[in-house]
Amino acid sequence: MIKLFRANIFLILILQLFFNYFCLTTQVLSQSATEDSVKFLKQINELSEQKQYASIQRLLESRLQKISFKPFWACRMVQNGLENYYGQESFKIFYLRNEPIAQKITQVDTILNIQMAQLRYPQRILRKITNSNPNYPWAFKLLGDYYNLQFREFENLDFAPENLVSKLEEKVFNNYSKALKLGYYSIDVNRWLGIYYLNKDQTDKAEQYFIKNVTDKVEDPESLLKLSEISYSKKEFTRAYNYAARALEKFDKERIYQIYDAKRLAANSLKELGELNKFQTYLKECIYLIPEKQEAYIDLINYYLSEGNTPAVETTIKKMLIHDPYDKKGYKITEKYILNSKNFYFADNLFDEMLMQFENWDEVLANIYWSKGDLVYAQGLETEAHKYWEISRSYMRQYLPEDSELIKEVGQIENKQPN
């Protein structure tokens, strides 16, 4: 009995030693794998900073083949392809390349010599992840990105089937919404969903998503700009100005069109608050920033009209049309001023000067003769008006198809006159 007891004790000790050895080995292997993953991720990030996108693709492909299909590395590979491709084929194959570098980066062996690579069928890769890991939010976010590339490609194309665009938009919406529901946080996703609801006139819901991007830790300037627009539309002018001012602090200086919009929102908010000097200052800063955009000129013109400041009106109109003779909005407000003031002499001089300055620009000439026709028609000179309108149409035919709706609009003022 004593011998049997001793044998059992010995067996237990052997098993305990074996178990401890197994646990220690597993812990070491796990730690080693973790250290390897951290080291590999650091290598990928270094290559990303150096814009070696083809090398990243090849490294990730190789890793996925060696360690089986891991969602994290698969998503990192898809992200690299969708964000850094230089060309694509039917949104199925995305082409990547390494940017030229002055010096060799770290020790990535011969893989750095590879200059080109392909990400193939990212949708299949992501669907494989979502099917096997339905709670993996990054895959849904990347699926949203994938469909968003197509949505942006087709949404402004006249020949794109309307049902295709709407289906793509819903796919983006569904995947982004799923990613957020699973706990994914993304400034870009919040902003996209905010714009989505804004376009559907669901202002309150849109505002909720933009506000998510304005926290103590981060302030997304584009979301601030949208919040300013929403506040202005609600006639909350103090909030509109404050959001616009904060956006101006955050935008990089090269984002001049967004800065222009923020300054203009700040200006018009201040106007509603009675800060007229600051209102004018902001608008003049807009004009200085982008003299080729008409919106700030038009805001100033309307203000000068309300003040009865004729010299300022005419100076601003002339400056606007000389800098941007293409946008029809500028001609419309010019016609409005001329018809109300009966100052046809100003219009004749301005248009004659523009005809000389832009004599080789068909689009400008078409706009000028269109407005000249409208103005002489208002004076009862119908024959002369028809002559100017036909000249306008003839210039339009140089850059527009014959059945263009814009050509048909020329002279429509005649049909809008009361009997």
Structure overview:
- The chain has 419 residues and is mainly alpha-helical.
- It has a domain at 43-120.
- 72% of the residues lie in helices and 3% in strands.
- The chain contains 20 helices and three strands.
- The chain has a three-stranded antiparallel sheet, with helices on one face.
- A hairpin with a 3-residue loop joins β1 and β2.
- α8 (203-212) packs antiparallel against α9 and α12 packs antiparallel against α13 (295-307).
- The longest helix has 48 residues, at 2-49.
- The termini are far apart.
- Residues 17-33 have low confidence and may be disordered.
Give the structure's gist in a few sentences.
By secondary structure, this protein is mainly alpha-helical. Helices cover 72% and strands 3% of the residues.
Features:
single chain, 419 residues, mainly alpha, three-stranded antiparallel beta sheet, 20 helices
Blueprint (SSEs and pairs):
Layout: H1 2-49, H2 53-66, H3 71-84, E1 87-89, E2 93-97, E3 116-120, H4 122-132, H5 137-154, H6 162-181, H7 187-199, H8 203-212, H9 221-233, H10 237-250, H11 256-272, H12 276-289, H13 295-307, H14 310-323, H15 328-341, H16 344-357, H17 362-378, H18 382-396, H19 405-409, H20 413-416
Antiparallel strand pairs: 1-2, 2-3
Helix pairs in contact: 2-3, 3-4, 3-5, 4-5, 5-6, 7-8, 8-9, 9-10, 9-11, 10-11, 11-12, 12-13, 13-14, 14-15, 15-17, 16-17, 17-18
The H-and-E topology, N to C, reads as HHHEEEHHHHHHHHHHHHHHHHH
Arithmetic mean of pLDDT: 88
**What's the overall geometry?**
elongated
Derived structural class: mainly alpha
Number of helices: 20
Q: Sheet with the most strands?
A: 3 strands, antiparallel
Low confidence ranges: 17-33
- The oligomeric state is single chain
Strand content: under 5%
Structure summary, number of beta strands: 3
Helix content: over 70%
What is the radius of gyration?
A: 32 Å
N-end to C-end Cα span = 124 Å
* Major β-sheet strand ordering: 1-2-3
